[in-house]
Amino acid sequence: MNYEDILYEVRNAAAWITINRPQKMNAFRGQTCDELIHAITRAGYDRQISVIVLAGAGDKAFCTGGDQSAHEGQYDGRGTIGLPMEELHNAIRDVPKPVIARVQGYAVGGGNVLCTICDFTIASEKAQFGQVGPKVGSVDPGYGTAFLARVVGEKKAREIWYLCRRYSAAEALAMGLVNAVVPAEQLDAEVQKWCDEITEKSPTAIAIAKRSFNMDTAHQSGIAGMGMYALKLYYDTEESREGVRAFQEKRKPDFRRYAK
Ligand SMILES: CC(C)(COP(=O)(O)OP(=O)(O)OC[C@H]1O[C@@H](n2cnc3c(N)ncnc32)[C@H](O)[C@@H]1OP(=O)(O)O)[C@@H](O)C(=O)NCCC(=O)NCCSC(=O)c1cc(O)c2ccccc2c1O
């Protein structure tokens, strides 16, 4: 597969996969997800690779989730909602190698979900995290909600989703969403250090450990697949479209008329 939306580079035994859409704050469209699935699977089953790094190009954003300019009712790709999100999430979970999120800027919406699912997140002091779904007419009915609660606890996960606040790297570290925070200029060196430490270890032991960690929450994959059908129905409503329009028009959404 030729990549247009991502970059693929091998450094020592680490595959660095970078979302390369800085003009869209590294938001993903359908094609981006397909390329990410391909690259993660390629690295995951390449014997020369021991660890995968997921990154975003430029200074501003790791990833800001679904591309709101490629979103009208549903997104522009394949799958139930026009984005093969559940396949992408499963690819990160299923590859027998650790995946590290390298976060230098915004990890927002689906970008924050990617961090949540990755085995590790290493962040610059300038990174910011948060969910935006209920502000823009979206929600992740799978790992982004249920698995987030496993990572940061139920109360914090509900706060993150219901209030849609932004959290600094230090706050993310304190809540267990991030493994390490370093000054921006040390980020790549720190990530490479983690990669090199992993590379020294037994790949089979790590692969079994990863599967074993996944086992406890494996049912969430089924919930996510089913949840996509609910999300599709939601995306077809005026309530969801109001969220997307408000973001595009840079105004506050008016959701009150849809109160249940
Ligand atoms: C990221 C921000 C917090 C940045 O705010 P700031 O005020 O600094 O900058 P601007 O808001 O002015 O943005 C600058 C520039 O970037 C464009 N942009 C930012 N994000 C996106 C995006 N996601 N898509 C397209 N374009 C984006 C923005 O329009 C500006 O462009 P200009 O041309 O005007 O300069 C802030 O931008 C922000 O909060 N962004 C919201 C991002 C968003 O809505 N993301 C989608 C959330 S939904 C989602 O990710 C998602 C969808 C699904 O369907 C899922 C399904 C299943 C599981 C998970 C899913 C999922 O997570």
Automatic annotation (TrEMBL):
Q: What molecular function does GO assign, one term?
A: 1,4-dihydroxy-2-naphthoyl-CoA synthase activity
**GO biological processes:** menaquinone biosynthetic process
Q: Which GO terms describe its cellular component?
A: cytosol
SUPFAM superfamilies (alphabetical): ClpP/crotonase (SSF52096)
What's the Enzyme Commission number for this chain?
4.1.3.36
Task: Show the catalytic activity.
Answer: 2-succinylbenzoyl-CoA + H(+) = 1,4-dihydroxy-2-naphthoyl-CoA + H2O
**Which PANTHER family does the record cross-reference, listed alphabetically?**
1,4-DIHYDROXY-2-NAPHTHOYL-COA SYNTHASE, PEROXISOMAL, NUCLEOSIDE-DIPHOSPHATE-SUGAR EPIMERASE
The family this protein is said to belong to: Belongs to the enoyl-CoA hydratase/isomerase family. MenB subfamily.
Q: What does this protein do?
A: Converts o-succinylbenzoyl-CoA (OSB-CoA) to 1,4-dihydroxy-2-naphthoyl-CoA (DHNA-CoA).
Protein name per UniProt: 1,4-dihydroxy-2-naphthoyl-CoA synthase
- Species for this entry: Plasticicumulans acidivorans
